[in-house]
Amino acid sequence: MKPTLYLFIGYPGAGKTTIAKAIEDKTGARHLWADAARHEMFGKPTHSKSESTVLYEYLNAETARLLSEGRSVIFDTNFNYYEDRQHLRHIASEVGADTKLIWVSTPYETSKHRAVHSGESRNGYEDAMSAEQFDAIASKLEAPGKDEVFIKIDGTKLDLQAVNDQICS
User: Fold this and answer.
1) Half-sphere exposure of residue 8, counting CA atoms within 13 Å on the CB side?
2) d(Cα 166, Cα 144) in Å, to the nearest integer?
3) pTM for the full model?
4) Is it the case that residue 60 has pLDDT exceeding 60?
5) Which fold has domain 4-167?
6) DSSP letters spanning 51-115
7) Is the pLDDT of residue 127 over 90?
8) Where are the domains positioned within the chain?
């Protein structure tokens, strides 16, 4: 069976990590969570461009390594830029892996409330992110293009069994 690379689009607080963990439980795929990796690598992250470059070079290499070993990978971060999604698709195709793009479509205000008021760390920030941090990330979301095949999940009411049925089939 071919390995699969799972990529996500969605605002902070949309439900991407919840879905990623459900896919991990269902498939045994390796969950690469950018937020956790950022903290492991940098302790107190600054979110600088150079820090992000180091982080994503590492995660991209780890993705390529795991896929080349025949292991599926859940790359848990905001793949909100088309160019980034294309780059990861290319990495997967080079080793014969499939790619599943998952758009966790959650209304802006719902996601913002979760990200800013939940008290949980988001996107590698120490605490809940600020409204300004949320707005900066959310404003950069590039919806899937007409050439992109994707699975759209309603993040407002996550039925994890239905999500697993839809994604892991």
Assistant:
1) 29
2) 18
3) 0.91
4) yes
5) Rossmann fold (3.40.50)
6) HHHHHHHHHHHHHHHHHHTT--EEEES---SHHHHHHHHHHHHHTT-EEEEEEEE--HHHHHHHH
7) no
8) 4-167
